[in-house]
Amino acid sequence: MIDTINTTLRRIPAWTIYMVGAAWAAWLFYLGLTGGLGPEPINALEREYGALGLKLLIAGLAVTPLRKYAGINLLKFRRALGVTTFFYILAHFCVWALLDVGTFARVWQEIVKRPYVTVGMVSFVLMIPLAITSNNRSLRKLGGAAWRKLHKLTYLIAILGGVHYLWLVKGFQIEPIIYMIVILALLAARLKWNRRKSVMA
Amino acid sequence: GAIGLVGTSANAAGEELTPNTLEEITSYNNYYEFGTGKSDPANNAHQLETADWKITIDGMVDNPGEYALADLMDGLDIEERIYRFRCVEAWSMVVPWNGVELADILNKAGVQSDAKYVAFETVVQPDNMIGVRRGVLDFPYVEGLRLDEAMNPLTLMATGIYGEPIANQNGAPIRLVVPWKYGFKSIKSIVRMTLTDEEPDTSWNKTNAREYGFYSNVNPEVSHPRWSQASERVIGGGLFAARQDTLMFNGYEKDVASMYDGMDLSEKF
């Protein structure tokens, strides 16, 4: 079963993620233009891009635990998942800044004055160095150890992204709580529980 | 007549308001009993049971009791009022309501002289309301107005939009409309009105008092703690529509500002 999955996965090229990601983003934009996202498409598109970005981020975080615990190997897709995450969060930011808030002065004011925007913005800014170094040349230049250390920023980015979502909803809503739990669970799955045992031994 | 009213008190800023389409008004709603997404009410509110609607009017009134909706409306003129509608989430639309002044209904019940507030309550039908089952808020949804706000000629009890019975997702069969306050004050599907001398609880204030005050007058100068209220997205403008500036008291300053003379609106928000 696992072997079949892995064999199938090996046949799918990683660029499929970029293609599907770009096509889906364009489709959502088209829906926004033509009324498919309801009578207020700006906020709707903003939320669609943001939520998809968060889902892709979670998918990226799931790669290691899936390999470790289920033996499913998605490693070759991880870079594409990460870059596509950045692409969606960039789109989310652009819709918010350009179409929703509108002026640079107001954008800056919102970033500085609204904690949930600040948190989201920090998360986005932290993604920039990861997006820039997501190519093989950067990996060689930085060296594997330094590159991996830098890309551990993803953990912080994910937590901040989850907080951003939790913070912006009204009332008791279950979705952002579920996202946060999933993010924390995927991070917890990376903790090396056996370290303490070996110390004790 | 109705047109004259639309041109004068209802349209305080003096410019022509172009109503949103019925499609827009009935497809972009907040009605948390039916879910928190903007299209959830349109998708789920068909389950609302509105037959034989009754409203209890109690507290400090001369004629307390349970009234059939038809009896309550009997003899009152239904007018059209084209009002701006400004949501606390910083979006807005223009709605052509049909309804009666709340004052006329309250006068039927006979408000006693010591009453200072009106408390309102929305119907709770857990079997029909997914948001109630999920506990999104502490239901029933409750709201309140000071008596002078309730008696203001702008304050409407709406039973229709565009001359048609009000859609379930818009608060059928009867809802409050207070055009100078954020939309959540305009409580939907009302089953109880209580005249009282104490400031009543309001749902969003109970949930988060720091963010939602009792008054919740539209005020571009007082930010919501999480977002600015200085401008608003206009429903129906499309993907490239610019925000418009939010008006003090949502454009009804001339008609309502005097009720708040001497009040610090940043404290009594």
TrEMBL record, chain A:
Subcellular location: Cell membrane; Membrane
A molecular-function term among this protein's GO annotations: oxidoreductase activity, acting on diphenols and related substances as donors
Pfam families named among the record's database cross-references: Ferric_reduct
InterPro entries assigned: Fe3_Rdtase_TM_dom, MsrQ-like
Presence of keyword Transcription: no
Main localization of the protein described in the UniProt heading: membrane
Keyword Nucleotide-binding among record annotations: no
Biological process according to GO: protein repair
Comment on bound cofactor: Binds 1 FMN per subunit. Binds 1 heme b (iron(II)-protoporphyrin IX) group per subunit.
NCBIfam families: PRK05419.1-5 (NF003833)
Name of the molecule in the record: Protein-methionine-sulfoxide reductase heme-binding subunit MsrQ
Organism the protein comes from: Yoonia ponticola
